[in-house]
Write a structure and sequence with these properties.
The complex is a heterodimer of chains A (206) and B (351). Chain A is of the alpha/beta class. Chain A is built from seven helices and six strands, in the order E-H-E-E-E-H-E-E-H-H-H-H-H. Helix content of chain A is 41%, strand content 19%. Chain A has a six-stranded mixed beta sheet. Chain B has 13 helices and 14 strands. Classes of the chains: A alpha/beta (206), B alpha/beta (351).
């Protein structure tokens, strides 16, 4: 029985956490990997901590049936944690396991606050990168790129298609949005791929 | 594992799936009042109705009114339905009780949320008693409890079929985890689509009663309803029996907790535990015969639910006097039950 890959995205409401989670599930579906996405938030209309649970089956794309144990949409521990604001650190602490990878935006979160998180961490200044190279709005898609590169389950081309589906209405009004998001994704993907390559050279595991 | 040809799957949220199922079952009218976690059903239907003039939509001032307008639609021959949750489910009870009295085929989706009162807005299994028995009366209602997105589709369609075939108020008892989850579903089923018909024709008198002057009259009337309810029970009640054949531990769970339990059973089986799942698909009428059969060779029972025993009460009532094996409770009101919780519980009690 195979275990699916489990990812938690968390941040402030409005940061686009739910959007990138949905794109990931959509891309999973397009590529033939079973996937689920469950949003989680409280009674507040806005301004709360927003959490998204994503599961992705790891069976090969050409597999005609999947034996991943993926029936229930929520889970206790994540393989990858994506944390985009300081308030989310406490809210999501219970989902961290020591073999997880903790990806956070260090342009928004100070490293000192993560002292108690014991799993491997990767600091990715997504907001800064997006601000410098594109526009701050797409910083979430930079992080999505990093997650896709790290998990390695979904082929890039499906993410591109999922992004186009997700923003179809917006792209119709402003075609530039498609390119911005694609580039944001590519940058995040490359940054993470570099980190993985360097880690392999130095023989440390990320 | 056998190689199967993949069916065409769609990626949708639970709430979108429910709307699609209602359309495929021939629903024509939705009256409702928005409430988390079922609001997207109302807005989803409103969008469809804006494009298709054959579909009727009404947002009412509250859930009580929503229930009564659904009844109005049904009386006029429309396949009318609604969706609500938590406090809305409470307000809906007066009209649903009336539908029960008049034997009207109303269909209502419930997205259970935590309570009492406003509670939490996404998840619980705390509306079992309310949905089964809410309102004055005896709870002659059909209640389906889906455990997956696919079942949300299949059972919503079945709810319309059962409602119009047997004329009892019918409910699909889901929750916000199911409703909000985005996942795969396929629309393979061709629904039977029991035709709707007006209950009152112009110039005709059809006395569907919800008022009685004499107690004995009501009693006679209820006896007829009970007879009908009992007769249809064997055709309507459904359950899933998973790996029960040699199971020493039988876990009882319904709805989405049934899904978690199934995952737990697979894991435990790999480690050699003889454990199985009994999952009622209908909470009313309850699959009692199968429940009794399921524990015949068992050494212990676990009841797992996101409520403090609302489901457990039903199971224990059915098993009263049938068996004296220990009953372990995994009652976690208002929070989800993960596969890990069930694995841990089964391991602890199997020692």
């Amino acid at each position: 029985m195979d275990k699916p890959t489990r990812i938690i995205f968390s941040g402030e409401g409005g940061q686009g956490v739910q959007t990138i989670a949905e794109i990931m599930a959509r891309a999973g579906h397009l590529s033939g990997h079973r996937s689920t996405y469950l949003p989680n938030y409280g009674v507040e209309q806005r301004g709360g901590v927003s959490i998204a649970f994503v599961q992705l089956c790891g069976c090969p794309e050409e597999a005609t049936s999947c034996s991943c144990n993926i029936g229930f949409p929520k889970f206790k521990k994540a393989d990858v944690m994506v944390v985009l604001c300081e308030r989310a650190i406490e809210r999501t602490r219970r989902y961290v396991k020591k073999e997880a990878l903790y990806i956070y935006d260090n342009s928004l979160i100070s490293n000192a606050l993560l002292a108690g998180i014991s799993c491997p961490k990767i600091a990715l200044p997504a907001t800064e990168i997006a601000k410098k190279k594109l526009t701050p709005r797409v910083f979430n898609v930079v992080l999505l790129g990093a997650v896709i590169a790290y998990t390695g389950v979904i082929d890039k081309k499906y993410i591109i298609k999922a992004i186009e589906e997700q923003f179809a209405e917006k792209i119709k009004k402003n075609p530039e949005i498609k390119h911005l998001n694609r580039r944001a994704f590519d940058i995040g993907y490359e940054v993470m791929s570099d980190i993985i390559r360097n880690a392999k050279k130095e023989r440390v595991s990320v | 594992m056998a190689v199967k040809v993949k069916a065409k799957k769609y990626l949708l949220t639970g709430n979108e799936i429910i709307v699609q199922a209602a359309l495929d079952a021939g629903a024509e009218m939705f009256c409702g009042y928005p409430i988390t976690p079922t609001t997207e059903i109302l807005t989803g239907w409103a969008e469809k109705a804006a494009k298709d003039k054959n579909l009727l939509f009404l947002q009412t001032e509250d859930e009580t009114s929503a229930g009564f307008t659904v009844i109005g639609g049904v009386l006029a021959g429309k396949k009318a339905w609604t969706a609500t949750a938590g406090p809305g489910n409470i307000l809906m009870q007066d009209p649903m009780s009336m539908a029960e009295a008049m034997r009207l085929p109303t269909v209502c989706y419930i997205g259970q949320r935590g309570g009492p009162s406003t509670g939490t807005v996404i998840y619980s299994q705390q509306e079992v008693t309310l949905t089964r028995f809410g309102g004055n009366g005896e709870g002659m209602r059909i209640v389906y409890s889906p455990s997956t997105l696919q079942e949300l589709y299949d059972l919503t369609i079945k709810a319309f079929e059962a409602a119009w075939k047997y004329r009892f108020p019918t409910f699909v008892l889901g929750d916000g985890y199911l409703g909000k989850t985005l996942g795969d579903v396929d629309f393979h089923k061709k629904p039977k689509n029991y035709a709707s018909y007006p209950f009152v024709q112009n110039g005709e008198i059809n006395n569907l009663r919800n008022t009685f002057s004499i107690e004995e009259e009501l009693y006679d009337n209820l006896k007829d309803h009970f007879k009908d309810f009992t007769e249809m029970s064997k055709d309507v009640s459904e359950c899933e029996e998973f790996m029960l054949k040699d199971a020493q531990t039988v876990v009882f769970a319904h709805g989405v907790v049934g899904s978690a339990t199934k995952m737990a059973v697979r894991e435990l089986r790999e480690e050699g535990y003889r454990v199985g799942l009994f999952r009622p698909i209908t909470l009313s009428p309850f699959p009692s015969k199968e429940t009794i059969r399921a524990v015949k060779r068992a050494k212990r029972i676990v009841i797992a639910e996101s409520s403090y025993g609302q489901f457990g009460r039903i199971v224990r009532e059915v098993l009263y006097g049938v068996t004296d094996i220990p009953v372990h409770r995994l009652y976690r009101p208002a929070v989800g039950i993960m596969p890990e919780d069930i694995v841990e519980k089964v391991k602890n009690i199997s020692k």
